[in-house]
Every structure is written in structure tokens, then in C-alpha cells.
Amino acid sequence: KREGRNSIRLFIKEGHLQEHIDEVIMEAELYKALMEDELTVYYQPKLNTMTKQVHYEALVRWFSPVLGTVPPLKFIPVAEKTTLIHEVTRTVVRKVCHDLNTRPELFSDSRTSINLSACLFEPELIDTHFVQVINEYKADPSKIEIEITENMLMKDPIKGIELVNYLKELGFRVVIDDFGVSYSSLNYLRKFSLDGIKIDRSFISQIDQLNSEKDISIVHFIIQLARKLNLYVTAEGVETKEQFDILTSLGCHEIQGYYFSRPLPIEKLEHALEHFFSY
Ligand code: C2E
Ligand code: CA
Ligand code: CA
Ligand code: CA
């Protein structure tokens, strides 16, 4: 009683109440943000070191007038606990299609990848929130790549195989995001007809440090394996010239990371592209 209102803490594990309140507020704000069109999409260029071709990853951004800038790692998990993730995905797909249609010169000869949450695992959900939106905009599926994480496919591998095949029949490229972080990585390379893999940043970030032989060996192995299996390999989170040089010498097809470019709003993309030709 002495603690007044705070006495509720007695019944709830330390910190959990605040966490719960934060989540409820975030959920309510996100709902409002979707209504009021507060989400935007940034594009992070990825460079093919051989062909110099540039592709992009679309990454959602939320600048909330109430909460400030909320990183996706904070709000995507909240959206995934509810069905808001469906609306977030629709919004991202819609914005990417809009940009592809209105700025064709920026996206000629390139593909843009979109992250697909494990929550859209059902074919009907993918149809409603992904495929139909793309059809509405008459966007060309061959310009769109889908990034899915390993846990999504391994949740139910049989369904995962059907889903990948379905998306590929529709003409999308499908790649595995955050490759290597799960123990089942090698297993699904056998089972899924994928177009490529993205080596997780955790494997990349140390390769230019002293005593990095182990990390380099692992990355080398992943790249060789991928190339043998005819998979396109992207390294994510490349931040330094040393990392870039090592990855290029190991035969990695594509490099993504702050070394080239941070994710950018579409207005800044054009300028950034001019700068790329110096690499
Ligand atoms: P991810 O798919 O692995 O995306 C890569 C993340 O690494 C992005 O963070 C990107 O900004 C960041 N990054 C890129 N290059 C570098 C680098 O050189 N160094 C470092 N330290 N980081 C780098 P971001 O945009 O904050 O997104 C975080 C995660 O949120 C994404 O991880 C993805 O899982 C999720 N996410 C982002 N946008 C979407 C979306 O539209 N839909 C869904 N379902 N998830 C999304
Ligand atoms: Ca991704
Ligand atoms: Ca990733
Ligand atoms: Ca990652």
C-alpha cells in the first residue's frame, strides 16, 4: 500500500509490466501509423563485384511523431505478435511497387528484395498481402526478390518447400536471409530450390580482425558451397575495405553493407549510384 499504484509490481515479475505496457503502446501507435501512412521504405544498394550490377534491399522505416524513430527490430516483433505484420508487409510491398513504377530509371536492370515475415507462412496470407498487391501494381515479379529466414522454412519444411516452389512459379527470386545462424542451414540447401543465400553479418564482422582464420574459413566454405550449388551469394554487413577485399577474393558475388551505402530514402538513391562507379 505504501507504494501506492506501484504495488502491482508485487504480482508481476520485475520489468515485465513495463515491457508489456511498452508493447501495448507500440502496438497502438503502429496501428495508427499504418492508418496515417507513417511508414516508409529505404533502399540499401548491394553491389555485384564482378558485373558492377546494383540491386537493392527494401527496409521498412518508421518515423513516429510520438515515439521518434523506431527501429524495425523493435516494432517488427510487436507487429508479428498481432496481425499488424500483414498490414506492414502490404505497405512495404505497395511502396516498393509504387517506386518501381514511378522511378523506373533507378530500378532498370535491378531487383529489389523484400523481407517476408514467418507470420505470412500460409499460402493464402502470401496471396492476400504480397502477391495480390504486386498484381494490383502490375509489377514485374522478376524484379522482386523475397528474403526469408531459415526458421521460417524449417518451422514446417514440407510446407516450406511448397511455398518456395509456389513463389518461384510466380516468377520471384527466393533467397535465404541470415544464412548460417541456424543449425539446419545445410539441411535445407538440399531441400529447397533457392536462388541464393545471404551470409549473416555475424560471420562477416570479424574477418578483417587479427586471428580471424576460423571466421575466414567458415565464410570461404559457405561461398564455395554456394557456388558449387549454383546459388548467388551475398555478404551482408560489410563495413570495411578489408572485409570487401577478402570477400571479393573468396569469390563472393555480391556485397551489401555500410562500406558502400547505408539504407537510403529513394530521393538519395540516385546520387549514391553515381558514386558507386568508383568501386
Ligand atoms: P535484415 O533483413 O538482416 O536486414 C539487414 C539489417 O542490417 C538492416 O537493419 C540494415 O540496415 C542493417 N545493415 C546493413 N548494412 C549494415 C552494416 O554494414 N553494418 C551494420 N551494423 N548493419 C547493417 P534494419 O533496417 O534495422 O532491419 C533490421 C531487421 O528488421 C532486418 O534484418 C529484418 O529482419 C527486419 N526488417 C526490416 N525491414 C523489414 C520489412 O520490411 N519486413 C520485415 N518482415 N522485416 C523487416
Ligand atoms: Ca533481409
Ligand atoms: Ca539479413
Ligand atoms: Ca541479419
Describe it.
The chain is α/β, with parallel strands linked by helices and 279 residues long. The protein has 12 helices and 9 strands. Helices cover 48% and strands 19% of the residues. Strands 1-2-4-5-6-7-8-9 form an 8-stranded mixed barrel, surrounded by 6 helices. Helix 8 links the parallel strand 6 and strand 7. Helix 3 runs parallel beside helix 5. The relative contact order is 0.12. The protein binds ligand C2E and calcium ion (3 copies). Ligand C2E binds next to strand 2, helix 2 and strand 6.
Short characterization:
This is EAL domain-containing protein. It comes from Jeotgalibacillus terrae. The chain has 279 residues and is an alpha/beta fold.
Furnish the topology, listing elements before pairings.
Layout: H1 16-35, E1 39-48, E2 54-64, E3 68-70, H2 72-81, H3 84-102, H4 104-107, E4 112-115, H5 123-136, E5 144-149, H6 150-155, H7 157-169, E6 173-179, H8 185-191, E7 196-199, H9 201-204, H10 213-228, E8 232-235, H11 241-249, E9 254-256, H12 266-276
Parallel strand pairs: 2-4, 4-5, 5-6, 6-7, 7-8, 8-9
Antiparallel strand pairs: 1-2, 1-9, 2-3
One calcium ion binds at residues 177-178, 198, 236.
